[in-house]
Design brief:
Chain lengths: 326, 433
């Protein structure tokens, strides 16, 4: 599937070069020039295509093929079961819950991180004291390795011995008996808080970069017209960085669908499957339980969901941005 | 044009990320080429990655080379988790090391079925006879495919000082006594038990034990082969566990507590006097030593008692849950590999193994060489047991065992009943049939 999309994508720029150069050189050396250009294209495109084929197309093909077999991870893959693995995956409550958890994270990220990130970006775009320091502080979590951040949060969130619990109880906020990660009803929300802490920096950074691109003249003109700071932000800054916001939403959506590392470290998908995601489901089914066929089917479902959402978002939302400039 | 190109590219890239994240490896290549290369080189993977074990095995390999001129042993020592991962990859590619570790049960049966393991029944008959009943976990259809070199049992490790502080004089021998001990510890402000339910298998060990105490040996043996769980005792096992769970004996946050990693793990809590006991295997003293600054673990406060008896249970209270590691030879390994495995189980090597406290030796000649008092006590318990039940998840294989462990972990979270655990296991077993 990817291969089909990959090929035109990779050759397109090359084709454009050929056409342009053709026009210029048609009166020149003719035939030998054309051949040389073909050679160049092959030379430049082949390594990328080979990498795509080896590390993208082949693994996808392999996972898709696996999904039609009952396979334990060794020996020949011969026990074909048709669509049975898909029936099992889609009928497994743990997996459907996992899909729901993924979508909760997708929508919660947009609902919480977008306004928060935007507010911080607008704030940090003003000339305030220690702006550089504040920007760094907000961006640092994003730079931290996911695993290290996860382990640190895991320790902070430990019941009784964790720092966070001591801080909260010292100001009189009640803490759950089993800790924030050990209580099924709170675990997903807790993971989301940690994810927000981790990824807010990226949103702020992108929005700040977008704000740099807003011409100063517009602010000046608005100020001359007597617009308040709020009006300037609402009518000028935010609309002008809308394309950046839409790209951030896209990135956030894809990231939330693939969510794995932070969940794996904080809860391993527990307690009582309260935080499983599609990715943790397929890892525990595949490498831990040796049901590679079921894991393969789950990965194909994850791919299809991700792909459908990416394409839909592209067609419905990002299209505006791309059209305007074409 | 420019921007649309970039946007399309971003879709492509993100789907590429998705793809690589979802495709979880695996090749159907079955050409087993053998790990060693030529016939005179034996590759041997083991997980004794720390001293003194690592150095000891180097010496063993050198001695074997001296006694067998022309044979070379390539020893690869790695951390346990690394070894498990690399073995899984090796089985996928078919390029398996010549001598490696098998945990027995369903996993071994699958490897045998795939033609990856060499039958040692004839070539190692003397060693097999010497090891006696210990090899039963590594037999498939009456044939022996691996030789266990360490076999341990699971029980409660406890902090004798904390028990004393709570006024408990005798370690509990029945479930009722265990409940009393839990009450006393709670009254003294001590968390009674830690369990790494986040890793699932430590929680599952409780169910395994209640099943072992509730079910007769014949019922269990039958269940392992026929995957029949209709006997009432399996539900009774779950009900006993529910009783225990109702006393709320576990450390706060136990549902996400890991088994052995770090000070906040179940083993870490026991090692640092935060809880009074933990159900774990023979590895526990070693794990606790690694988790304490002074390297002593619980030191002289280390105590051990067997899982208590269940009133009215069919199971023998002396029977223990356990498991171990065995040396196996891959199908295409050079013949000298079998000699190496026989040598590894010899009186001489097993005695050295015991002297270095590397595990619980299976060769009776090495029994007296175990110096660690806690391990020596375990060895006595193990050898006095009428039978050792292999961990159910190992015995059933990863697929059924995993489904079983998941259901038991749900029970710990109060989201599955005794019947649910049996049903989930039966359902996973039906898929295998």
């Amino acid at each position: 599937m990817t291969r089909v999309t990959a090929a035109p994508e990779a050759t397109d720029p090359g084709a454009a070069v050929t056409r342009g150069a053709d026009a210029r050189r048609v009166t020149g050396r003719g035939r030998s020039g054309k051949r040389r250009q073909r050679l160049e294209i092959v030379l430049f495109v082949t390594p990328a295509l080979a990498l795509m084929a080896t590390f993208v197309a082949y693994p996808v093909y392999s996972a898709a093929r696996m999904s039609f077999y009952d396979w334990k991870g060794f020996g020949p893959m011969v026990d074909s079961v048709g669509l049975q693995n898909y029936v099992r995956v889609l009928g497994d409550e743990v997996f459907t819950d996992a899909v729901m958890h993924n979508f909760i994270i997708v929508f919660a990220s947009i609902a919480v991180q977008l306004p928060l990130g935007l507010a911080l970006a607008l704030l940090l775009n003003r000339r305030i004291r220690a702006r550089g320091l504040l920007r760094t502080i907000i961006f640092v979590p994003y730079v931290l390795a996911e695993v290290i951040a996860g382990v640190v949060w895991f320790q902070l969130l430990q019941p009784r011995t964790g720092v966070l619990e001591k801080m909260l109880s010292s100001v009189g906020i009640p803490v759950p008996e089993q800790g924030f990660l050990g209580t099924p009803d709170l675990a997903l929300a807790t993971v989301f808080v940690v994810l927000t802490w981790k990824y807010l920096g990226l949103a702020v950074l992108l929005f700040l970069a977008g704000l740099q691109g807003v011409p100063d003249e517009l602010y000046e003109a608005a100020q001359l017209d007597g617009a308040s700071w709020w009006q300037v932000q609402r009518r000028i800054a935010v609309p002008l960085i809308a394309p950046t916001i839409r790209v951030w939403i896209f990135l956030s959506m894809i990231g939330s669908l693939q969510l794995f590392d932070m969940v794996w470290i904080l809860t391993g998908g527990g307690p009582a499957n309260a935080t499983t995601t599609m990715a943790t489901y397929l890892v525990s089914m595949g490498t831990q339980r040796s049901n590679f066929g079921i894991a393969g089917a789950a990965s194909v479902v994850l791919f299809l969901i991700g792909f459908a959402m990416a394409v839909a978002y592209q067609a419905l939302v990002l299209r505006r941005d791309t059209k305007a400039d074409a | 044009m420019r921007r649309s190109g970039r946007a399309a590219l971003s879709v492509l890239c993100s789907s590429a990320v998705l793809l690589t994240a979802t495709a979880c490896g695996g090749s159907e290549d079955t050409s087993a080429s053998g790990g060693g290369g030529d016939d005179n080189t034996i590759t041997w993977w083991h997980n004794s990655n720390n001293e003194p074990g690592r150095g000891y095995y180097e010496q063993v390999a050198a001695d074997f080379e001296d006694a067998n001129p022309g044979v070379e042993v390539e020893v690869v020592a790695m951390a346990h988790e690394d070894m498990v991962d690399r073995l899984a990859a090796a089985f996928q590619s078919g390029d398996v090391p010549d001598v490696y570790m098998e945990r027995g049960g369903g996993e071994l049966a699958d490897h045998v079925e795939a033609g990856l393991v060499r039958d040692l029944t004839q070539e190692a008959d003397e060693t097999i006879e010497k090891l006696g009943g210990s090899v039963s976990g590594w037999q498939v259809d009456g044939q022996t495919y691996a030789l266990p070199f360490s076999l341990g049992v699971v029980g409660f490790w406890y902090n004798t000082a904390l028990f004393e502080q709570a006024g408990i004089t005798e370690p509990p021998a029945t479930m009722e006594e265990l409940y009393t001990a839990i009450d006393k510890l709670k009254a003294a402000g001590i968390v009674p038990i830690s369990v790494g339910a986040g890793d699932k298998w430590p929680a599952a060990h409780y169910w395994y034990y209640t099943a072992l105490r509730a079910c007769g040996q014949d019922v269990l043996e039958d269940a392992v082969t026929s995957l029949d769980f209709t006997d009432e005792c399996f539900v009774q096992a779950g009900e006993t566990l529910e009783e225990l769970l109702a006393t709320e004996p576990f450390n706060p946050g136990f549902l996400t507590t890991p088994a052995q990693e770090g000070a906040s793990s179940a083993s870490g809590l026991l090692a640092t006097d935060q809880v009074a006991m933990e159900l774990a295997g023979h590895w526990e003293p070693g794990v606790m030593q690694g988790l304490t600054d002074d390297g002593a673990g619980l030191g002289e406060n280390t105590g051990w008692f067997a899982f208590p008896e269940i009133e009215g249970g069919e199971g023998d209270p002396e029977a223990q849950l356990g498991g171990g590691d065995a040396w196996a030879v891959s199908t295409d390994a050079p013949d000298a590999s079998v000699d190496l495995v026989n040598y590894l189980l010899s009186d001489e090597v097993q005695t050295g193994f015991a002297e270095n406290d590397m595990g619980l030796p299976t060769n009776p000649a090495a029994t007296d060489a175990v110096s660690d008092p806690a391990l020596a006590q375990l060895l006595e318990v193990r050898d006095a047991a009428p039978y050792i039940q292999l961990y159910f998840d190992t015995a059933f294989g990863a697929s059924i065992g995993g489904a079983m462990n998941d259901a038991i972990a749900l029970m710990f979270a109060d989201q599955a009943t005794a019947q649910d655990v049996v049903d989930a296991t039966v359902q996973a077993a039906d898929m295998e049939k």
